[in-house]
């Protein structure tokens, strides 16, 4: 029987003494044991800890309300459907590299009958000028902060404000795909409430960045929240109990939000050090968040094998998840400089990088 490569990789990471990219994987037992579980009754169809989480998110974002969803895909669909139902327009403006196009199987189109208009195909979010230049009316403009599949890139605060003003000028709603909005604040230089205040609705994730086990929220007006609760039920998201997801999300907000500025600052140190490795390229430089892309001139399989060997034999996790970059001879991965990376100096990164590349086979 063949060993599952994913389980082998996670086991190797869990056993490592040092981790550069990513978080140490925790078992289900570890996750639940770490929770401060109250003696109260668990949530029943969305009350209790779920309500507490919704109130916490609404307060952080400065919105009238927030609604918990089991998945971000469901929350995004509801946000776009709300705009379409209110305006009667079935077109929405989003980026071809957006999460909805790349990772949600175009659910907005397949289940809600909406149609995408692309303001730009450049590897960045649309500008105000591009939004104003749309050739047809749209009900919602969606911006992903950061745009993950372009390299976790963010606009400047002024550019974001111009995009928001342009969206209002064309009579559309602005929806922020803020799955990783938590880590966008340092680059933009404004708080969560100021950022959310530019938009009509915001989706946030609880397992990305803050370390919850699952779940998301859609935040905005009380009208949006009432609509979202109806459609959450229709989509099958009115789950009987979700207290583990809610409690880990609340714990993550307490634990991770204060640390994120340190992660973002340290990501710049890590990126600068990685850029000195032979043939390496990082993007963006400096990183906009605590995540960025790294390219190396080797085959993806050889780099993944080297990462696993370094982990299993030396208890050091460097970087995994390598894939072909679409450029001959180059492979790409995403680096996440989270809590474990804070212990790494620039010299540590360079030294471990040399040992990692020393395990890559010749001619790879």
From TrEMBL:
<dbReference type="InterPro" id="IPR001597">
    <property type="entry name" value="ArAA_b-elim_lyase/Thr_aldolase"/>
</dbReference>
<protein>
    <submittedName>
        <fullName>Threonine aldolase</fullName>
    </submittedName>
</protein>
<dbReference type="InterPro" id="IPR015422">
    <property type="entry name" value="PyrdxlP-dep_Trfase_small"/>
</dbReference>
<dbReference type="Pfam" id="PF01212">
    <property type="entry name" value="Beta_elim_lyase"/>
</dbReference>
<dbReference type="InterPro" id="IPR015424">
    <property type="entry name" value="PyrdxlP-dep_Trfase"/>
</dbReference>
<keyword id="KW-0663">Pyridoxal phosphate</keyword>
<feature type="domain" description="Aromatic amino acid beta-eliminating lyase/threonine aldolase">
    <location>
        <begin position="27"/>
        <end position="285"/>
    </location>
</feature>
<dbReference type="InterPro" id="IPR015421">
    <property type="entry name" value="PyrdxlP-dep_Trfase_major"/>
</dbReference>
<comment type="similarity">
    <text>Belongs to the threonine aldolase family.</text>
</comment>
